[in-house]
């Protein structure tokens, strides 16, 4: 049986405070490895079959990786990439705001409990994301603090401007507005 430690050992293979470039760029080989090793587990997490994992900091972090990160790796460019987002926000909100399980994690690990808010199209979640990421700014153990925090602000700016992430429109079969089309045509990056 796969455990939270199996997920964390894979994701943080270079150490719990080491930032890996593979996390935030397209890498088909990395995606295939996730699919092979954790595809069924990610699907089980989407049905909340791993709810007991919520009871520990390591377990809730593993859920964040399964539901928020692996779903994006497994379903790139498709609506399924975002299907677990609402569930993960509920889990993250409880873990961070009620149980304070994020405090049992390293700063780099905390990123993955905060990303569900950054990935949300709700402004309240964006504000929470920025506040949480700003709280990491002065921690000397934080890998790439300025870049990570800058991305939180950039995501918030897109939601403030458009009310949604235009780069998701095609996958979610949403029609882009002319302003969104212009933004996407100009690179639309974060």
From TrEMBL:
One protein family per Pfam: DUF924
Coiled coil spans: none
Record InterPro entries: DUF924, TPR-like_helical_dom_sf
Gene3D superfamilies listed in its UniProt record: Tetratricopeptide repeat domain, TPR-like
Signal peptide: none
Protein name, as recorded: Membrane protein
Lineage, broadest ranks: Bacteria, Pseudomonadati, Pseudomonadota, Alphaproteobacteria, Acetobacterales
